[in-house]
Amino acid sequence: APVVRLEDYRPTDFLIDTVVLDIALDATATRVHADFSVRRNPAGRADAPLVLQGDELVLLSVTRDGVRLTADQYQADPQGLILPGPLPESFSLTIETMVNPSANTKLMGLYRSGGNYCTQCEAEGFRRITYFLDRPDVLSVYTTRLEAARADAPLLLANGNLVERGDIPGTGRHYAVWHDPHPKPAYLFALVGGTLDTLAEEFVTASGRKVEIAVHVEAGKRERAAYALDALRRSMRWDETTFGREYDLDVFNVVAVSDFNMGAMENKGLNIFNDKYVLASSDTATDADYAGIETVIAHEYFHNWTGNRITCRDWFQLCLKEGLTVFRDQEFSADERSRPVKRIADVRTLRTQQFAEDSGPLSHPVRPRTYREINNFYTATVYEKGAEIVRMLRSLIGPAAFRRGMDLYFARCDGTAATIEDFLGCFAEASGRDLGHFAQWYEQAGTPVVTASGQYDAAAGTYRLTLSQATPPTPGQPTKAPMVIPIVLGLVGASGDALPIATTNEATVDADGLFVLDSANATITFTGLTERPVPSLLRGFSAPVRLESELDDDDLVVLFRHDSDPFNQWQAGQTLATRLILAAMRGETVNTRFGEALGHFLDSDARNDPAFAAQVLALPSEADIARDIGRDINPTAIHNARLAVKRALGAELAPHLNALHGALQSSEAYRPDAANTGRRALRNAALDLLAAGDATEGAARATAQFDEADNMTERLGALAVLVLIPGAARDHALATFAARYGDNPLVLDKWFALQAGIPEEGTLDRITELARHPAFSMGNPNRIRALFGSFAMTNATQFNREDGRGYDLIADTVLALDARNPQVAARLLTAFRTWRVLEPIRRGKAEAALRRVAATQGLSPDVSDIAGRSLE
Ligand code: B3K
Ligand code: ZN
């Protein structure tokens, strides 16, 4: 595939103002009749031909201004259609194509899922339905007429409002006409046809407009749609209250399908979801699933303003909608649940996903400058780091100016395809600040490392804090400039008091403790101190950086016990745990007093905020430790050291953990609210840790919890502990679980995933066997992610087996999947993204597997792009 460059952007030569589609749905031969009103773009070239994109299309006819064109009047193949001209200033164009939804295994364009019809058009799927100017800066008003056999598809949905529906007498067929008055790019087009159960209610907007909001699920699953509908209602209200954004159509439809390449899609007025992010009941979904549903429902709904009303000029601006919308959904969940716990969870994801991506060969700026396959840029960097940039912007200019900037953005850019410059311009104007240097965050890849060191002068009562920053080289960016890094800080005294923040006037720390590090080095002199302070830096994780500080273990214990910033309290615990694990790797036993502090915490604060306590109890992941070490990684050594520390802590804290596990049991009916979710999270975390310390007691408690649980959170929490303990209890629990949920694919995914994650030699063979299980299918993305994705992404010791068989399994799977579904195959291959930091033997095996993939003939652009960049 050719390289696409941001600097080559130019407007299209034509615009398409209206699109009228007439689509006769058929499982293998769907006929698409498309009428376009086309005109020359004043910003385009005067004599240019009309060049439309297609993908695997069968062309039936082309008609211009009512005259059917003969084959010599255009050039067409499955991948494109060109009208050479001469062409008038404006004209109507009718194109008839034929597509086969049943044969569409890529799940892009129009396809079948669970016997229904659905679409996925972002990024470039509309061209698999008809020839089009398939790019986000071409905005059109769509009218869609759908027709189908009533028995085959009683429900017919498209974007916008329903204008008409009826039967076609004597044919058994019916039709529905939908009109979307809001101009939109083709990637937001959607249709659904099929047999679906609907759960609906009325929503009245702030200004009194009535909207029907509905969730449609596969037949028989309606009882599991209630939480999604509830989350939708809360999202709509929140966007009104928090950002003044109202919904703008008469209906808002959410459709859940079982075959979907990613989480969900924000099509205008017709969001289409992976049913994993819709379906929930206490018996089938964990608290984490409920939280995921809330987040994704909110995310897709929020796109209605940040993504749909204001879309992207080109795909390089993807973070304009994605980073901003992730920021918005994170804020929503923070408001609905616990803000500090949400922040910790988000930072965990950022570090595991984005920091890992940013430290390896797939590192790229939040706004990339080139791509070969845009679908490979729906990444943690664009999404999660993109959200961090918006969060930093808010810290830098303050919440009031931030809100004014958002208002200005909505007012000024509504109805347009915008850029990052347009976005930042609104905040510069609203705040009166120059954001030129800040904009570097979009351009420069890599995770900045901030180093802090301090000196206390008792006689002068001063503390000199020196901060410096450096960003490591990334592909194509060997040297880096200093960034604008907001560092929120505080000073804590030995007994836990917050010390006053007064500085000499060279450095400004504002009343909220914000210091902006915008050069390579800076020194802050704090004055008026009567004791040596412990600095609490990067509070709330105020910037997506790695912080290296020289705090000793005693300082960290002070922060762990007393920091008024919950994030840094949690972080201090994580840092102490990391030190224990690193010491265990060196064969040392050290006493950081962490166990003691943790015991104290469990008996006091933990019970006040169980959700927070669960985060404290969860040790840093193996991936976190690997990133800390940075090179010559031996995942088995990390795993063993972490396990040793976990066992020691579990044994040391056994009395506290057993007490907690008992006390946190509840006989009340299941509710997925924040308080109960927190209680169950802590109960599961306590079980996990106590089982590490005492496998016999752990297995007994886990078996009891598994048998008694009346909800999936506790049942799965128990099973997750049991699968780590080989023996009859484990085999029995796995079999019981499979029998109970044999007809529920989403629950069986949890069963596949747990087994794929077992850190044992035998897991590889287990996976080969599970891939032959009747419930497994290489045609379903969720199944593939559950089995192979979990193995590659979460089972560090077995994916990185020294004999290389883990790499071979994933390479073989990627190759087997590529022809069928390149997007899912390419995503799986990104499991190799940290291969270069492995120790030499594993590095060699991983490289060989990657080279074998790269050298295979006929690869998709998706897989070839990932393989190629991984090896660069
Ligand atoms: N915008 C979609 C993602 C589309 C991915 C295309 N490969 C979902 C979301 O971010 O909301
Ligand atoms: Zn999104």
Automatic annotation (TrEMBL):
Signal peptide location: none
Residues in Aminopeptidase N-like N-terminal domain copies: 29-188
One example of a Gene Ontology biological process annotation: proteolysis
Top-rank EC class of the record's enzyme: hydrolase
Domain Peptidase M1 alanyl aminopeptidase Ig-like fold residue range list: 446-549
Domain Peptidase M1 membrane alanine aminopeptidase: start-end pairs: 227-440
MF-aspect GO terms: alanyl aminopeptidase activity; metallopeptidase activity; zinc ion binding
Any matching Pfam family: Peptidase_M1_N
Superkingdom of this protein's organism: Bacteria
Hydrolase as UniProt keyword: yes
EC number: 3.4.11.2
Catalytic activity: Release of an N-terminal amino acid, Xaa-|-Yaa- from a peptide, amide or arylamide. Xaa is preferably Ala, but may be most amino acids including Pro (slow action). When a terminal hydrophobic residue is followed by a prolyl residue, the two may be released as an intact Xaa-Pro dipeptide
Keywords, in A-Z order: Aminopeptidase, Hydrolase, Metal-binding, Metalloprotease, Protease, Zinc
Cofactor dependence: Zn(2+)
Keyword Metal-binding tagged: yes
Occurrences of domain Peptidase M1 alanyl aminopeptidase C-terminal (ranges): 553-872
Family named by the database record: Belongs to the peptidase M1 family.
The protein's name in its UniProt record: Aminopeptidase N
Organism of derivation: Chelatococcus asaccharovorans
Source taxonomy: Bacteria, Pseudomonadati, Pseudomonadota, Alphaproteobacteria, Hyphomicrobiales
